[in-house]
């Protein structure tokens, strides 16, 4: 995701000296040595921060300049601070890459203090401003209700009734297909192309979901994030996912607001006192719309295993 602009001006172009060593191959155009060194087998999670390192490195390789070198260094530092275990497991060529960046003049910045981005009460205020839109999402039809809702659910008849009404309306079905197509394209963008999810894509999905008055967990989560972002000023808003071993039946997508910077994604107990879980899909099947890290709306598809969107380093 796009990093914030770097403050100040750093002039890194230096005249070559006879003693200067040849530039590292890691910075050469099209070189994938570092990218290959951090890859694991299919199904292995790769954090959004690592993806940002790879994306920034590709940009530097394509059009080398001092600013892009610094952006790679900043992305590495952010990855090291937020995902130390992943760094330890996949950082075999990280020292070599950092040395190459240093030779280009990139500097290591002072580490920021790990504090929540939000003030006390901030997440609650954001929820209050966004609640009408979130509750509307929670009132829509759940398109995969027949997979996840059992007849012993007290709201079973109501939930299936909404699904049946949706299934008889060609315009709503077409709108839902548009939402799914956009979500599927976003998934390809994230997993294959290592590109972050853009706010524009989420807004397009939200529009299609509103037209369909229906959705699955991913399209509803993107729509909820878009709704929260419309009312947001200073809160961290993320779309997170839990992926289990059994594919669709153990996959879930939801929104978290107010997670503390520097906390560990897979350890909700580290998220800080202001974090909230927003899950409109849960509301469509009779569960709570909002929960806490200790009591999420859907507790058996928890904790999150990956980040799909984070507005602290996003693309618009």
From TrEMBL:
It comes from the Bacteria. This is Uncharacterized protein. It comes from Aeromonas veronii.
């Amino acid at each position: 995701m796009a990093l914030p602009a770097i403050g100040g001006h750093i002039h890194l172009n230096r005249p070559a000296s006879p003693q200067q060593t040849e530039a590292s191959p890691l910075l050469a155009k099209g070189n994938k040595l570092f990218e290959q060194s951090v890859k694991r087998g299919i199904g292995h999670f790769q954090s959004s921060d690592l993806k940002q390192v790879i994306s920034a490195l590709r940009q530097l390789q394509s059009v080398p300049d001092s600013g892009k070198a610094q952006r790679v260094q900043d992305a590495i530092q952010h990855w090291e601070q937020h995902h130390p275990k992943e760094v330890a497991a996949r950082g075999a060529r990280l020292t070599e890459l950092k040395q190459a960046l240093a030779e280009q003049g990139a500097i290591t910045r002072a580490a920021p203090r790990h504090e929540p981005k939000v003030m006390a009460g901030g997440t609650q205020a954001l929820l209050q401003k966004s609640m009408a839109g979130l509750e509307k999402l929670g009132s829509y039809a759940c398109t995969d209700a027949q997979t996840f809702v059992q007849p012993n659910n007290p709201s079973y008849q109501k939930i299936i009734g909404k699904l049946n009404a949706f299934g008889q309306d060609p315009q709503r079905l077409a709108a839902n297909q548009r939402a799914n197509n956009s979500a599927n394209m976003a998934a390809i963008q994230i997993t294959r192309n290592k590109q972050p999810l853009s706010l524009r894509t989420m807004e397009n999905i939200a529009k299609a979901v509103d037209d369909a008055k229906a959705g699955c967990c991913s399209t509803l989560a993107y729509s909820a994030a878009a709704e929260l972002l419309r009312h947001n000023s200073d809160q961290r808003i993320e779309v997170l996912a839990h992926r289990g071993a059994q594919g669709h039946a153990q996959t879930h997508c939801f929104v978290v607001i107010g997670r503390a910077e520097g906390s560990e994604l897979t350890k909700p107990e580290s998220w800080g006192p202001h974090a909230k879980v927003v899950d409109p899909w849960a509301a469509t099947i009779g569960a709570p719309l909002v929960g806490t890290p200790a009591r999420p709306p859907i507790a058996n598809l928890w904790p999150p295993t990956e980040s799909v969107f984070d507005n602290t380093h996003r693309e618009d």
